[in-house]
Amino acid sequence: MLPELREAWWETGTRRRAEVAVSGIFAELPRLAAHAVVVAWRADRVRTLLVALATLGAGTMSTFGLLSTQRVLVELFGAGPTPDRVRAAVPALIVLGGIAVVRGTLAITVGYAMTGLEPLVKQASERRFFEATTGVRLEAFDADTFADDMERAKQAGESMSELVEGTADGLASLVNVIAVAVALLFINPLLLVALLVASAPKTYAAMRAGHLRYATYVASSVRRRRMYVLERQMADRESAPELRTYDLRGFLLHQYDMVMRAQSAVELGLARRIAVTSAVGAVVGGVGLALVWVLLGWLLATDRIPLSAAVTCVLAVQAAQLGLAHLTFQLDYVYTSGQYVQEYLTFLERADAYLPEQTGPERPPAGPLQHLEIRAVHLQYPERPAPAVDNVSFTITAGQTIALVGENGSGKSTLAAMVAGLRRPTSGTFLWNGKPYDAWDPASLRGRVGVVLQDHHKWPYSAAANIAMGNLSADTDQARIELAAGRALAHEMILDLPHGYRTLLDRTFKEGQDLSGGQWQRITAARGFYRDADLLIMDEPSSALDPRAEDALFQDLRARQGVRTTILITHRLANVMHADVIYVMHEGVVTETGTHTQLIELGGRYAELFRLQAAGYGK
């Protein structure tokens, strides 16, 4: 399937809303509402209780408000001089005013509580999400299902707070509708039937219109994804140079016009269908409302209710219709938000399967490296026919510099990642000083290993922070930072930045700076040197460096020989000639082993690759 045809995270809830009938929404709402209450209760019990009590209180006040309104009308429509009728209505007016004050206060209370509750819910949800994403083993990101779940769950905080907010608003609307119904029961039970007759058609029309919107949204998903891609291509810093180099402006604008014409036609069709649905609902509802007025007229003509009750009924019907319209919107809102929350919960369940195994007894910290044994290690990526690493075994002694060489895809980086503890082998064992990795404390073991990656992440922090994060367990030492930068030939480069080591390395922020690929590679190498680990793994550390920086880097690596242990991965074979042992990998298997001289004399794959590079330089 093409990438643009894959369902995006923002389409999950709307697709399910489009597929489910109205009965399905009502069937799932109690579970979603219960989950929202549980989440809110865990985030802040006091605010959750305030929202619930204030909402119920406001609904109760609505009932008393309608009854008090009727009392006022009874007095005003009674017999006698106008001043006497007004004076008789004053007590009921005072009660009505008091009810209005209480309802206003309760509304403010709900607003205050929700304002404080929503960020707490969002924070708790997002924190739990990031605990999962940062805690799972690296192989989790190799599984398509995990990546898809993570993409859909990434808006966890927003979705959870929306679910809580929608549930609170939906509860308020429901309580208001119930309050009106209760008031009508006190006035005349027939009026409650009239309310249903007058309100049901418009409510159904609103639900139907919502269904049409969601269905059209899903049907337009491919166009929407293409628009998302086009927007990024036309208004993104990274695409801007190539857009201008190849004069792609006209091409991209033409693509935009084609997609938008098709989308506009769909939206116009949707507008017509919604207009027809709403019109039918309004006509039927109007007929129902006319029947209400006929019923009221009959009740008045036969003296079954007083005029005051009839007027109160009119007010109640209007209030109920407004409340039902709002409730209809909230039902869709809660259901859709709930689908995103369900994706979030599904992701957390899947992430649990990728969390590192919990062990009972406390494991000892790893001691200084004496020897590292790689024993029959095998790793198979999901949905890959061939293994990435296949039955590899060798031993590294402290102070050695070993090199892993081979063509792209030979398994070098995968093997190095397993040595660093970033990946677990499908089978086989890594032994640190004679004990399996699992026998040592994981954090302590990771602290003994430094890794410099070719595909490094450009962290949007200062130059000093980018280097110091190589060992956050130690106190930040500026002298040590500068020493590590000097070893990576990055010190002078950093001093030339506008704010030196305090310069922010990201143009997204004010006064941030961009670095070239080679400059970033120096920063990354300095990060590895800052850790000063027993074992340093350098994966293509010089691919973007200029010759002077590359020479300085490898001089420093050669100085480690006999003192610290180094695993070097590079395609530039001239830089591994000094290694104590060179392991040549091909299709996940170690095919040749020896020193540079031995491998050249062997005349195998290494010798062939070395001659090809040497011939290139000879020209």
UniProtKB/TrEMBL annotation:
<protein>
    <submittedName>
        <fullName>ABC transporter ATP-binding protein</fullName>
    </submittedName>
</protein>
<dbReference type="InterPro" id="IPR011527">
    <property type="entry name" value="ABC1_TM_dom"/>
</dbReference>
<dbReference type="GO" id="GO:0005524">
    <property type="term" value="F:ATP binding"/>
</dbReference>
<keyword id="KW-0812">Transmembrane</keyword>
<dbReference type="InterPro" id="IPR003439">
    <property type="entry name" value="ABC_transporter-like_ATP-bd"/>
</dbReference>
<dbReference type="InterPro" id="IPR039421">
    <property type="entry name" value="Type_1_exporter"/>
</dbReference>
<feature type="transmembrane region" description="Helical">
    <location>
        <begin position="174"/>
        <end position="198"/>
    </location>
</feature>
<keyword id="KW-0472">Membrane</keyword>
<keyword id="KW-0547">Nucleotide-binding</keyword>
<feature type="transmembrane region" description="Helical">
    <location>
        <begin position="279"/>
        <end position="301"/>
    </location>
</feature>
<feature type="transmembrane region" description="Helical">
    <location>
        <begin position="88"/>
        <end position="114"/>
    </location>
</feature>
<feature type="transmembrane region" description="Helical">
    <location>
        <begin position="49"/>
        <end position="67"/>
    </location>
</feature>
<dbReference type="Pfam" id="PF00005">
    <property type="entry name" value="ABC_tran"/>
</dbReference>
<dbReference type="InterPro" id="IPR027417">
    <property type="entry name" value="P-loop_NTPase"/>
</dbReference>
<feature type="domain" description="ABC transporter">
    <location>
        <begin position="374"/>
        <end position="612"/>
    </location>
</feature>
<feature type="domain" description="ABC transmembrane type-1">
    <location>
        <begin position="49"/>
        <end position="336"/>
    </location>
</feature>
<keyword id="KW-1133">Transmembrane helix</keyword>
<dbReference type="InterPro" id="IPR036640">
    <property type="entry name" value="ABC1_TM_sf"/>
</dbReference>
<dbReference type="InterPro" id="IPR003593">
    <property type="entry name" value="AAA+_ATPase"/>
</dbReference>
<keyword id="KW-0067">ATP-binding</keyword>
